Amino acid sequence: MAERSSGPALAAAVKLLSVKRLTKAKLAEKLGHRGYAPEAISEAVAECERRKYVDDRSFAQLYVRSLLDRRPVGRLKILQDLVRNGIEAELAGEILDDVDKDEDERIDRALLRFETSRPQDGYGQLARRLERQGFGAPAIARALRRRAASRGPLPGPDEFEEHA
Q: Is residue 134 a part of any domain in this protein?
């Protein structure tokens, strides 16, 4: 593709950012796909950052808040999502350190949701479902111990009626 100067790259970057919040990495990737020269992309992204049109920390904070408002997920899943969106691992870790304070509450909400949707699941199935949501093994073990202490053991499969 033909290389373009930084002026048009900046205009394209502003247009992209007017439609959707992006990280610096995703913005650079999208400009690259549009055929802008690497130097023009760097200048455009730097100018957008200088003007505060793009801010990876704000993106990460808003992304995490939005994700957790929709469903309870664990640190590992959030970290994967942030890195996939172009957030540097160190910044993602800082953002997640703030979120970790609420992990027990999030995992308890997820556990309650799973128990409600499939009451026949035992501890093993619940643990695997929580793991798929990005919760770590220590947090899962704590949550299942809290659940057992407060409500007793889960009912066995023979205690549920078969629905034909």
A: yes
pTM of the predicted model as reported, rounded to 2 decimal places: 0.68
Distances (CA, A) of 119 to 61, 90, 100, 126, 144: 34, 39, 28, 10, 14
- Give a yes or no: residue 163 inside a domain: no
What distance separates the 2 farthest-apart alpha carbons in the chain? 71
Range of the domain at 123: 102-158
Total number of domains constituting the chain: 3
Q: What is the pLDDT of residues 117-158, one digit of tens each?
A: 888 888 889 999 999 988 988 889 899 988 888 877 665 554
Let me know if 17 is exposed, middle or buried by CB neighbors in 10 A (0-12, 13-18, 19+): middle
Question: In this model, does residue 85 exceed pLDDT 60?
Answer: yes
